[in-house]
Amino acid sequence: MANLLTMNDLSARDIEWILDRAESIQKDKKKFRESKPILVTNLFFEPSTRTRFSFETAEKRLGFQVLNFTSETSSTTKGETLYDTVRTLEEIGTDIAVIRHKDDHYFDQLIHNNIKLNIVNAGDGSGHHPTQSLLDLLTIRQEFILFQGLTVAIIGDLRHSRVARSDAEVLTSLGCRVVFSGPKEWHNPELPGDYMPMDEAVRIADVVMMLRIQHERHQHTLDLTKEEYHQAYGLTLKRSEMMKKGSIIMHPAPVNRGVEIADELVESENSRIFKQMHNGVAIRMAVLEWALETERGEMNRGELIKEW
Amino acid sequence: MANLLTMNDLSARDIEWILDRAESIQKDKKKFRESKPILVTNLFFEPSTRTRFSFETAEKRLGFQVLNFTSETSSTTKGETLYDTVRTLEEIGTDIAVIRHKDDHYFDQLIHNNIKLNIVNAGDGSGHHPTQSLLDLLTIRQEFILFQGLTVAIIGDLRHSRVARSDAEVLTSLGCRVVFSGPKEWHNPELPGDYMPMDEAVRIADVVMMLRIQHERHQHTLDLTKEEYHQAYGLTLKRSEMMKKGSIIMHPAPVNRGVEIADELVESENSRIFKQMHNGVAIRMAVLEWALETERGEMNRGELIKEW
Amino acid sequence: MANLLTMNDLSARDIEWILDRAESIQKDKKKFRESKPILVTNLFFEPSTRTRFSFETAEKRLGFQVLNFTSETSSTTKGETLYDTVRTLEEIGTDIAVIRHKDDHYFDQLIHNNIKLNIVNAGDGSGHHPTQSLLDLLTIRQEFILFQGLTVAIIGDLRHSRVARSDAEVLTSLGCRVVFSGPKEWHNPELPGDYMPMDEAVRIADVVMMLRIQHERHQHTLDLTKEEYHQAYGLTLKRSEMMKKGSIIMHPAPVNRGVEIADELVESENSRIFKQMHNGVAIRMAVLEWALETERGEMNRGELIKEW
């Protein structure tokens, strides 16, 4: 079983293998061919457009058979546990389950001897989202070639973002300096790195990574209008002019235009927001291959990430 | 980019190409083969059975890879704009987006230099529904061979029907006489052609095209029971006996049986209602091919419809 | 047309053909190849995970093209009849419709000269669920080889279960003794066989088949807590120790753990609950082949089940 639940499941060599493979997929359009048909089930317990479609496209490009499960049309209304649902999918023949769930660490209940299928985490609560981290890494590597010495500013809703944590950890491991900025109420003591005022973070960063405001996860809202938030913590046009030459803008999307980022910047010359989405398909193809090849013992995985 | 947003995007030659192609698909069951896999995304923001399944079948018959987006399970709940959703689908690799949306002319915001994928309109609000018009044309042509000189009566909910407008315009262009009938409250001054009493319309028509009452788009309902409506504006058994020899009945479906049309007439000998549905698949296969071939510049398109 | 609506549509020879075919599918992984692409539409008007995914996997393993219809995203909101929906699917090119519906005998309105496609019943109200019966049969036959002389105890919500009735009839026909146990309020006079106390039923059975409590079909609930129900009518750990050597536990799932059955028994050594799910895919592949081969007259069907 080769699960990808958090970035901690990957060794440095795994990450390199995945990023290289994703780029070779983009260049050659070559695809991997299994001798037997692979069945993938996408289990999305939360609404999603880009992550689900990006995975589904990756699966179809690889020639896999695909089942799509959304919580609206399923037996979870009959009170079945997640464990029983996943065991069922395995008995039906699922080789890989791609799962998004609103609970942090939903996968803890699935790490169980009886479950043999591969699990790829497509987002757990405010926890992890490893394929998003990997596509962010690919986007940064395509721009700067080396991670060592880069400054990445992660800005905004640090408390509820599953991207912030995964990205901060892996970027730090790869030699980046990671800094944070955002409303005090949303600071997150678990994140490694320095907090600083918005203008300073934007000024020193090679990568300005804006986070989406996770309205759906907030219990209390800030006492700010959208426009006030934008002026205080958003990437305004004026702030974008302070950015270093050669620096880039990233955002995991969907974007709240005019809130986290000025409307005009979303597709500006130094924005890589749509390139991130583009990279997502190749990354997910590479991750699905990685899961299958690791399972078959065909990968030399090196040490896991914690030992980087 | 070759979009099909309204019938005005098609030249007379385009229409002829599509109708001929649809018929040759029906005869030979031949399908077009792309060298690279084509990815189509069906974006349905309104419920639909026949249009969505007809498109999806067409796409699968053509060997395309298909993503199905319905508004219930998507990030539109996170407030993303339609433009950003479509740009995302493009970055993911979508070649053609088939879109149904409740807003008239939703596609105006998508006619944008940054969007390169092909858009096929599967219905916008009370506006257009070009593939429905094309399958109506095919059904009429299969019956009468020539359009010139035919009388087509379009009857019922003229104000809210996206079929009425598209069909009336293109049929008039092709040399048909188009007449209308229905409750005064639903008359639509934008439609070209004569209004007349129900019985007269039925008597002179070669094609009696009944429209569905668009309950879901009405803000005020007529002050009539279903039975009263049926007697006043429906195709009753008695009225059907006034129809000319050789004339046919059409309806875009879903049918409100016993309201727009008597139950017994839906599958009567001169009804073409289910044949319309049958023709829908071949028309949509032909339209998808048209979009791809036009994009590659392999079509000689002639003049657009306004110059017919 | 070869419909599978209830087990009464199958002759003894049909059942044998299906069970044998399912096993040969499991062994050889061979799949049937149609010369023309087969289009299957899954029409699920009730939520379902395992049945729908089991069918969809079977269809994809067979290389069929698949449309998935769920009531949430369809025109049934526009008031279309089931007959018209199915006729539409037929015109679109559907060869087989797999249907689940909350109404008992929904299919009566579809047994109509105008409908030519094959219908496979995936569950009607509290009525029938023939593919569930067939996978139960396969599971029992794989265990005991012969049906003759076995005692099968069906236990629990006998009134609302579509499994109880189908299974009881066919098992009796095949030479099993079927006994029942459960709350008096849920006894069902239509079921053939003896009622007995829980402990006795468990003690004499070769197969202890627990039923799911169909909360969603109950108008009045029993005056019992979950724990009280479990003690009175559930398969507790203590009761499981009374079971005969070599006997097995079955359950159609989803399981209410700790209610119908003790948590620890779900994956115990003599449980075949997940094997039932595993067998479901091969059974459904065999049923889909059966429908197509019967339609072409390539099957020698023997006498229908009532004459067994």
UniProtKB/TrEMBL annotation, chains A, B, C:
EC number: 2.1.3.2
Amino acids binding carbamoyl phosphate: 50-51, 100, 129, 132, 253-254
Pathway: Pyrimidine metabolism; UMP biosynthesis via de novo pathway; (S)-dihydroorotate from bicarbonate: step 2/3
Domain Aspartate/ornithine carbamoyltransferase carbamoyl-P binding: residue ranges: 3-142
SUPFAM superfamilies for this protein: Aspartate/ornithine carbamoyltransferase (SSF53671)
Keyword vocabulary terms for this entry: Pyrimidine biosynthesis, Transferase
Chain residues that bind L-aspartate: 78, 162, 212
Family under the similarity heading: Belongs to the aspartate/ornithine carbamoyltransferase superfamily. ATCase family.
Name this polypeptide is given: Aspartate carbamoyltransferase
Gene name of this polypeptide: pyrB
